[in-house]
Structure formats: C-alpha cells, structure tokens
Write a structure and sequence with these properties.
By secondary structure, the chain is α/β, with parallel strands linked by helices. It contains 10 helices and 6 strands. Helix 5 links the parallel strand 3 and strand 4.
Length: about 190
C-alpha cells in the first residue's frame, strides 16, 4: 500500500504558549494518518545557543547538542499525547503506524549520518523537517509556527529573508516533489491538514 506521508514540524516556541500540547491532542483525534512529527528545539535549543560562546563550543558540538534539544522536546511532546511514540528511523516510523501510533522524530542518528546537512545554526528543525520529508518521500511538509507570517513571504527564499525559517530551508525544499506550507497556530495547522 502506498503511503501519503505528512511531516509536521511543531515549532519549539509553541511549547512556551501551551499551543504544542493542544495541537498534539487535536492531531491525535484528527483523521490524518501516516504523520511524522518533527519537534523544534525550543527553549532547550536556546540554552545551547547561549552556552556555545560561553563554553567555546565548536559548531559540531553545538549542532549535536541542538539535536539533543530536539530529542528533549520530543520526549516532552510524547508525554502529553499517549498515541505518540518516539522514533529514530524509517523502520520505527513504520512500526508506529502499524500500531496506530504517531511517531515523533528523534533526529540525531539520521542527521549525524547525513553528510549533506551542515553542522551549523543555519540548519534548524525547519530545514531538518524539509530534509526528512525528502528522505521518507512525504507528500507534504507543514511547518507550524507561533509567529505571524509576514504578508510578502510567499516563497521559501522570502521566508528565509523574513527570518521565519533558517537560512538553509530554501535549499532543502528546492525541487522536492512534496508540497510545503508554513502556518501560524493550532487552528491553521488543522485546517491545512484537512
């Protein structure tokens, strides 16, 4: 059976407002199947950004720690919605779907094995979600943000220029067969999935 996979990146900033748990609970009740959740790093990644210059961390170390920040956010997300499970690989995504669960991606193993992903703050969870969508042959990518999107940012490069997504995002979505959308908030995310 051919899957129609949706990769949904839930911004770490949504966790600060309580919108992330609300979205996860609504997704659990939503009829969309074959979803992979990509967590943002949120406040955990902010701690890494702050620590890097103080502790003189290399880009490699900071990148690894930022991936672990996403891991921590994934654990927090899985804690609020019982039908979600942590998953590192395509085989674990498939196993989750077979069990009628929704996988939340733990990115470190796959990302660290991908030489095309630079160890840099120019690559955040937005670009990693775009990369993963390509790797799993997703039909669509949805980035859910907390900030209101600028009216003129309708292209990937426009979103980069407006600071909505990281500098590498346009490169990762270029010439990909999946559709992609950036939305603000819970209701817009649910509407985009319907």
């Amino acid at each position: 059976m051919m899957r129609s996979i949706s990769v949904i990146k839930i911004g770490g900033s949504l966790a600060r407002t309580g919108a992330a748990p609300q979205l996860l609970r609504k997704l659990a009740a939503h009829p969309v199947r074959d979803v992979i959740i990509v967590p943002g790093g949120g406040e955990f990644a902010d701690c890494v950004r702050a620590a890097q210059p103080r502790q003189l961390l290399s880009e490699q170390a900071a990148h690894h720690m930022a991936l672990l920040a996403m891991h921590m956010m994934a654990v927090a997300m899985a804690d609020v919605a019982p039908d979600f499970v942590l998953a590192e690989s395509t085989s674990q995504f498939e196993a989750a779907w077979r069990d009628d669960k929704t996988p939340i991606w733990l990115p470190a193993p796959l990302v660290q094995a991908a030489p095309e992903i630079p160890a840099s703050w120019d690559v955040t969870s937005d670009s990693l979600a775009a990369w993963l969508a390509g790797e799993v042959s997703a039909a669509r990518l949805l980035l859910v943000k907390s900030r209101v999107l600028p009216g003129k940012a309708h292209t990937a490069q426009g979103l980069v220029d407006a600071g909505v997504v990281d500098p590498c995002f346009a490169r990762f979505v270029a010439r990909r067969p999946y559709s992609w959308t950036v939305v603000t908030g819970v209701e817009a995310a649910l509407q985009a999935l319907s």
